[in-house]
Design a protein that fits this description.
10 helices; mainly alpha
Length: about 200
């Protein structure tokens, strides 16, 4: 497998979509606002709905395209796809363009897994919608839906693909450690809540 099959997906995943969009809308560094992350939730609370939607779509697309690029560079081999999937999420979470800081991997992971294990990922989306609709906790919806993907992948795809989904889920969950603590303490902010809120993505 070519080293480029890992480096190119990482570089694509590392593009700080939310940071760039926030700058376009006059926020010099979104990491100094709200939850301090570059994801769509913090863009929503800091800049507004339109920029947040653009961030979400951009992060999902870059995750998908990152894996597609890695697959092409690795001649479609399963190992190349697996490495590209994880590399894209790592790039989002620890972006070389932001001093190895970044997002929490949710939207980029969604895009990456839609390429790698599409049916398992699609099956987890209703979990996100239902949990968000009933609790308005973006973080909880993200955590539970991410945790569901490996279970679907293990029944629908190869063990390698399921392991890849599991690694992505572990990264996403680990990046939400502060959110988990706030959920347990009852201090996590809900979607639509104003103020210095804590984002999930």
């Amino acid at each position: 497998m070519s080293v480029l099959a890992a480096l190119v997906p990482y570089a694509i995943g590392a593009i700080p979509i939310g940071w760039l969009i926030a700058r376009v809308f006059g926020v010099s560094d979104i990491r100094r606002h709200g939850s301090g992350t570059i994801g769509a939730t913090n863009v929503l609370r800091t800049v507004g709905r339109g920029p947040a939607i653009a961030t979400l779509v951009g992060d999902v697309l870059k995750g998908y395209l990152a894996v597609a690029a890695g697959a092409a560079l690795g001649s479609g081999a399963g190992t190349a796809v697996a490495v590209a999937t994880v590399a894209a999420v790592v790039g989002n979470c620890w972006s070389v363009f932001l001093g190895f800081r970044g997002g929490k991997g949710v939207a980029t992971g969604l895009g990456a897994l839609l390429y790698t294990v599409p049916l398992a990922t699609a099956a987890a989306l209703p979990v996100f919608v239902v949990v968000l609709a009933t609790t308005r906790y973006v973080s909880l919806a993200s955590l539970l839906s991410a945790a569901c993907v490996p279970f679907g992948a293990v029944t629908l795809y190869s063990r390698s693909a399921a392991l890849t989904a599991l690694v992505v889920a572990v990264i996403v969950i680990a990046r939400h450690h502060a959110n988990i603590a706030r959920l347990r303490a009852g201090t996590e902010s809900r979607l639509g809540q104003r103020g210095d809120a804590h984002g999930a993505a």
